[in-house]
Structure formats: structure tokens, C-alpha cells
UniProtKB/TrEMBL annotation:
<comment type="similarity">
    <text>Belongs to the PDGF/VEGF growth factor family.</text>
</comment>
<dbReference type="GO" id="GO:0070851">
    <property type="term" value="F:growth factor receptor binding"/>
</dbReference>
<dbReference type="GO" id="GO:0016020">
    <property type="term" value="C:membrane"/>
</dbReference>
<feature type="domain" description="Platelet-derived growth factor (PDGF) family profile">
    <location>
        <begin position="65"/>
        <end position="167"/>
    </location>
</feature>
<dbReference type="GO" id="GO:0005615">
    <property type="term" value="C:extracellular space"/>
</dbReference>
<dbReference type="InterPro" id="IPR029034">
    <property type="entry name" value="Cystine-knot_cytokine"/>
</dbReference>
<keyword id="KW-0339">Growth factor</keyword>
<protein>
    <recommendedName>
        <fullName>Platelet-derived growth factor (PDGF) family profile domain-containing protein</fullName>
    </recommendedName>
</protein>
<keyword id="KW-0497">Mitogen</keyword>
<dbReference type="GO" id="GO:0008284">
    <property type="term" value="P:positive regulation of cell population proliferation"/>
</dbReference>
<dbReference type="InterPro" id="IPR000072">
    <property type="entry name" value="PDGF/VEGF_dom"/>
</dbReference>
<dbReference type="GO" id="GO:0051781">
    <property type="term" value="P:positive regulation of cell division"/>
</dbReference>
<dbReference type="Pfam" id="PF00341">
    <property type="entry name" value="PDGF"/>
</dbReference>
<dbReference type="GO" id="GO:0008083">
    <property type="term" value="F:growth factor activity"/>
</dbReference>
Length: 249
């Protein structure tokens, strides 16, 4: 039962993480409701019957009637994580050399916006190198003269996504791993999962294993079983074959 509970909790967390990731891409209420209708966290039967978007919007509007506001209410477009037009300077070093650069800045797309949770950041997933030309410099040496500069190259973001900004060294314990999808530290899942008297931990190997919270009877200062076996519910070492035999009997 404990084994099933551990896997179920992680599965539910992953479902919610997927939902939040898709919700970060929604720009309007209709899109957000569509994400909800398609997500695994909704009632399966309800989804199969096709959720009525109009009813969902109607329910939301009824709830909004309790709020009285004198300010102007407008239809929003959610920020989301998207490539947005921004201005970047052109050849700053050339400007310092004198003369007048045209254009002194150009428009490119840079990933920006918000994600559903603070531990995620909006990052580019696809980029391209683009060149701007002609870039010219006006020089005043008695009379203005025009000099053509080499094309100005820079990076343009074309696709963005919310990515976990935590590092792999974030987790304080070797018994935990950084789940990039959930973007937080979680206990390693032992296979088979540990019982109530055990915990999942790394001791002398890189693979997570079930470790007893007290020494295993008959073994001096030992909290874990040798390779090929694992502690049972009473912290006795058994192989998977022995465990299966007990279940069958």
C-alpha cells in the first residue's frame, strides 16, 4: 500500500506540472479553459462528454457578480512565455568611435513573460542568427560622408518555453533528486518502493535502494540489504522471487 501511495503521489504531481506547463502557453480565458478540459486532472468522464465551454464561462461570470468595481474592466491577454519584440543597440563600440550610426537600435524577438511558478523561467528553445543591413555611419570631417558598415549579426528567439531554473546541486540530500519537470527536489523512488519502516537512500551505490530506519536484525551496523535483495516490511532481506512467492502463498 505504501508503495502504491508513493507512485500515486508522484504521478499526481507530474499531472499538475503538465497542466501548469500548458497553462503557461494560454493567452486567453478560452484557451485556459481548453487546457483544463484536456488535462488529466479533470474528471475523465466529463472530458469524454466534451466540457461545455459556454457553461464554464457562465459559471465564472456568475461568480464575478459578487465583486463590485468602478474601474474600467478590460479583456486581458495573459503575458505567458513568448518571443516579444524588443530593441537592442547596434554596434555600441562603433558609436564611441565618433560619427552617427543609423539605425542605432533594431527590433528583435527575445523570450520574456511569466511562468505559472516562480522556480521556472522563460527561456528560448529555438533561435536563429539574423543579419541587419545596410548599417551606415555618418562621419563629419568637414563634410558629412557615409560609410557602409558590415551587416549587424545578432540572435533572434523564435520559440520559448518555461524551464526549471534550479541547478542539479540544489537538493541537499543524496536521497533526493531534482525533478526538472516539477522543478523541485523529491525523494528518489526506489524500485520496489519502500515500506513504512524504510526510506529511499543512496549509500554505497549510485542507485536508490530501500534502507531500514534501524539496523537489520542479524547484520552488524547494517541498514541496507546486499545486491539482489531488499528489506521487507519488517526489515528482513529478501529477494524479489521470495517476495513474489510470499504474495502468491
Amino acid at each position: 500500500m505504501a508503495r502504491l501511495r508513493v507512485h500515486c503521489n508522484v504521478y499526481i504531481q507530474i499531472q499538475i506540472a503538465h497542466f501548469k506547463a500548458q497553462l503557461s502557453k494560454a493567452r486567453t480565458l478560452k484557451q485556459a479553459l481548453a487546457v483544463y478540459a484536456d488535462s488529466d486532472i479533470t474528471n475523465k468522464h466529463q472530458v469524454a462528454m466534451q466540457v461545455d465551454m459556454r457553461k464554464m464561462e457562465s459559471d465564472i461570470n456568475k461568480q464575478l457578480q459578487q465583486y463590485n468595481t468602478e474601474e474600467k474592466t478590460v479583456q486581458y491577454v495573459a503575458g505567458g512565455c513568448l518571443p516579444r519584440v524588443t530593441c537592442i543597440p547596434v554596434y555600441e563600440k562603433q558609436v564611441k568611435m565618433g560619427g552617427v550610426i543609423f539605425p542605432n537600435c533594431v527590433e528583435v524577438h527575445v523570450c520574456s513573460g511569466c511562468c505559472q511558478e516562480a522556480q521556472f523561467t522563460c527561456e528560448p528553445t529555438k533561435t536563429e542568427t539574423i543579419s541587419f543591413s545596410p548599417i551606415i555611419r555618418f562621419e563629419n570631417e568637414g563634410n558629412f560622408r557615409i560609410i557602409a558598415l558590415e551587416p549587424f549579426k545578432t540572435i533572434n528567439h523564435t520559440e520559448c518555453s518555461c524551464k526549471c531554473k534550479l541547478g542539479t546541486d540544489t537538493c541537499p540530500s543524496s536521497a533526493q533528486i531534482l525533478d526538472k519537470e516539477l522543478c523541485h527536489c523529491r525523494d528518489r523512488i526506489c524500485s520496489p518502493a519502500c515500506y513504512a519502516m524504510q526510506k529511499c537512500q543512496i549509500l554505497h551505490s549510485q542507485q536508490p535502494q530501500c534502507v531500514c530506519k534501524r539496523p537489520i536484525p542479524g547484520q552488524n551496523n547494517s541498514y541496507f540489504c546486499p545486491f539482489g535483495s531488499h528489506p521487507d516490511a519488517y526489515c528482513r532481506c529478501e529477494t524479489e522471487a521470495e517476495a513474489n512467492k510470499v504474495r502468491v502463498d
